[in-house]
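Input record (one chain):
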Amino acid sequence: MRNSLLFTFLWIVGLLGCNSKSTVETASVEQNSTNATVDGLYIDLEGVGTAYDFYTWTSDRIPMVSAHRGGPYPGFPENAIETFENVLNYTSSIIELDVAMTKDSVLVLMHDDDLDRTTNGTGKVEEVTYEYIQSLFLEDENGQLTSFRVPTLEEALTWSKGKALLTVDIKRSVPFEKIIEEVRSTDSEGHAALITYTFPAAKKLHSMAPDLMLSITIRNEEEIKRLEETGIPWTRVIAFTGLAERPREFNQALHQRGVFTILGVLGNLDQSAVSRGDQIYASFVQNGADILATDRPIEAAEAIKTMTPSQSSKSKYFIK
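The corresponding structure, as predicted from the sequence alone:
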């Protein structure tokens, strides 16, 4: 039976458990032939083969959320491992994170070129040493200082094993070679997909690491054609369809190729949910979005939890 049935169970557990941390209970499921397992709200992919299977679209797929910059909330700053853990206390989630590089070539989690907005330090990441960054503390989005430190990419990759799928946003100053080396050295090929924004970048990354999953921006039929011209197989593609909702027919065209769609609801669409009600997240999924990349992962997961299909066909993977 397809691995996707196993992961379907995960998303049912995760989405039903996002009201409160107290609702989270440990679940156990039978292992299948690939030894991919589920424990509570965590994902455990044994190898890259299970990632391919997980990201192959099927009609019984369960809608997911992706926590943009790890899902910061008050007291939990962006791109912090403690923030990732906080989101996973409420719902299973893909974790999107940003990687920058220090003066001495250490890969750290940081979105901005500068340290000023998110830490109590100052200066450009690429102009300071890792030793300096180690001395800093992260600030949340309200500017409140926390006790959390800036993690390295290696620490994040190691933490995520058996817990979460990652999508890695590579800042322009970071060589692709460094990212791939870190993914390889931590045996993270099975759960770390790399984000690209241009077709040349995607083609280069695929040539360097053809086994890795890539998140590639594909927003229209022309970009579907351009992707196919790169020679990257659809089995290695997760389609980021942009920050505006796409026609149902376009999403279906990607589904017919076995591809998951990620709709970026962060920004305007998240704000629409705040003003019009969180049920709008369900409408995005009904229109063909499979993964909602959001700044509100806990709320979005709660809104789409009622959309999970009947559990009757997935009894093999139920909690014992």
